[in-house]
Amino acid sequence: MRGQARTWGTPTTCTIFCRHGKWYASITVKCEPQRETGTGSIGIDLGCKDVVTFSDGSKEPKPSFLKEGQRKVKTASKRLRRKRAPNRSQRVKASRRWKKHRTKVSKRQRKVARQREDWLHQLTSKIVRGHSLIAGESAT
Fold first, then answer.
1. What angle do CA 34, 36, 40 make, to 5 degrees?
2. At what angle do helices 96-130 and 64-81 cross, to 10 degrees?
3. For residue range 1-41, what is the model confidence (pLDDT) as tens digits?
4. pTM for this structure?
5. Residue 40's closest CA among 137, 134, 121?
6. Helix (H, G, I), strand (E, B) or coil at 37
7. Could you tell me the CA-to-CA distances from 9 to 3, 28, 36, 53, 125 in Å, in that order?
């Protein structure tokens, strides 16, 4: 386990799994979370140019590290396409270089996905921590 739990409880399940050559453990804990929020209210508008625009006029821009990560994934995928890929209908095996490069591409994709997930979690946590009422735009 890494880090410190916000609220302690009794562990109920533990799932161990292997994903992309790395082992992970997911521990479920039964607890009663008690989180404090701010007192104000805020409205959120999701956009294209800026990720989020708040009702008080402040904006949250797109993170620059995501663009850089996507560029790296794109170049790695381009290099992968130049290797001999598997083709079951013609009974062609993938080359060793293709297999090796496929792992590199998946590592890069995993890193970008984790960065995006972490950034989104930090942003939403900051919004919830500072406001007790959050209003969003309608989907229609």
1. 150
2. 160
3. 556 666 778 889 999 999 877 898 888 888 887 767 777 88
4. 0.74
5. 134
6. coil
7. 15, 9, 18, 37, 21
Tens-digit pLDDT profile for residues 109-121: 999 999 999 999 9
Q: Which two tokens stand for residue 66?
A: 């995501």
Q: Which amino acid is at 73?
A: V
Tokens of 119: 């950034």
Task: Give the integer Cα–Cα distance in Å for 32 and 47.
Answer: 35
pLDDT digits (tens, 9 = 90+) for 55-92: 888 899 888 898 999 999 999 999 999 999 999 999 99
CA proximity to 45, closest of 29, 32, 31, 56: 56
The label of the residue with tokens 């297999």 reads: 99
Yes or no: say if 116 and 124 are a contact pair by the CB < 8 Å rule: no
Cα–Cα distance, 59 to 41 (Å, whole number)? 16
Residue carrying structure tokens 């794109």: 74
Distance CA 102, CA 20 (A): 11
Residue 129's contacts (CB-CB under 8 Å, 6 or more residues apart) are 36, 37, 38
DSSP assignment letter at 57: S
